[in-house]
Amino acid sequence: MPETLENIAISHSQSLILKAQKGDEKAFTKLLGLWFKRIYNFSLKYFGDHDLAMEATQKTFIAMHKSIARLKDPDSFRNWLYKIALNQCREEDRKNRQRSWQSTFENTEAAAVEEVVHNPERQYQRLEKEEMLSEMLLNLPEAQRVVVIMKEYEGMKFREIAMALDISENTAKSRLYY
C-alpha cells in the first residue's frame, strides 16, 4: 500500500520528536514546519477567522515547545498536538466572544482567480457551497464542530479523536452522526 504524505509526515515526526525532546531546536523547527499548516487549518475551521486561527496556531506551537519534553509516547504526538490546538482555540474563543465570523474559505483567492478565468459560473457555485458549508459548520455546537473538523477535514480516526478530546469512541461517533 503506498504511503500517503500524512503517514510520511507522521513517521518522520517521530524521529524529530525524540530530538526535540532533547532540546534540538532544528528538530523542533522541522516539526513546526511539518505540522503548522494542519494546525492552522484546524484552527481556521474552528474559528472561520484568519487572525484568530493564526493566534491559536502560534500559541499551540509555543505550548508544544514548552511541554514536548514531557510527551511520554511519540506515537501519540498527533493526538497530543491536536489536544493542545483545541485548548488554544477554546482559550482564544473565551477571549474573543464578541467577534464577527468570516468565511472559512476566504484564503482560497489564489486558486479562485485561476478558476474564474476558466469558468466563472463554476467558481460562483463553488464559493456559494463553501460559504454555506462554512456557515453550517460554525453554527454547530463546539463539541460536534470539533469532531466534524477532526474527522472530515483532518482525516482522524474515531480512536484518535476520542484520545485527543478525552471522550469515548462511541461519544465521538455519536457527536459526528448526530
Q: How would you describe this protein?
A:
This protein has 178 residues and is mostly helical. It is 76% helix and 0% strand. The protein is built from 9 helices and no strands. The longest helix is centred in the first third of the chain and has 23 residues, at 25-47. The protein is globular, with a radius of gyration of 17 Å. Residues 98-108 have low confidence and may be disordered.
Layout: helices, strands, pairs:
Blueprint: H1 5-21, H2 25-47, H3 50-67, H4 77-95, H5 109-118, H6 120-139, H7 142-153, H8 158-165, H9 169-177
Helix pairs in contact: 1-2, 2-3, 2-4, 3-4, 4-8, 5-6, 7-9, 8-9
Structural class: mainly alpha
Estimate what percentage of residues fall within beta strands.
under 5%
Uncertain regions spanning at least 5 consecutive residues = 98-108
E-strand count: 0
Tally of DSSP helical segments: 9
Q: Give the terminus-to-terminus CA distance.
A: 33 Å
Largest sheet: none
Overall mean pLDDT score?
82
What's the alpha carbon Rg, rounded to whole Å?
17 Å
Could you provide a short overview of the structure?
By secondary structure, the chain is mainly α.
